[in-house]
Amino acid sequence: MSYAASEALQTAIFTALSGDPTVVALSNGAIHDALPPGPVPSLYVSLGPERARARADKTGAGAVHDLPVSVITDGAGFATAKTLAVAISDALDGAALSLSRGHLVSLDFLRARARHSGERREIEIWFRARIDLA
Fold it and tell me: Domain locations in the chain?
């Protein structure tokens, strides 16, 4: 097992979302792996934590990464957040992203959860990435 492709995966996901015109339009370009200083946008996308585990086989080393992409809003209701979450899912589910290290075998929707978090609403969209490091 290796965590070697983690940064490459995060960069590829951030690049894919930042380059998707629908995601950019719906989020007003507020796509972050860490919130910038200053006022928090009313609606934004955040790359979250990840879990990685070994996934080696006879052909070589690999890893499986489970990671959420979150849509967070202080707007009323979930409708706007869900529209953005669908666009994120469309942009990433099954995407053939290029990694600077390793090879992305698959990137698939895993699960989603919509919840209230204090005054904010949050939708976590979990994806599973299979990476070959051979």
Answer: 6-132
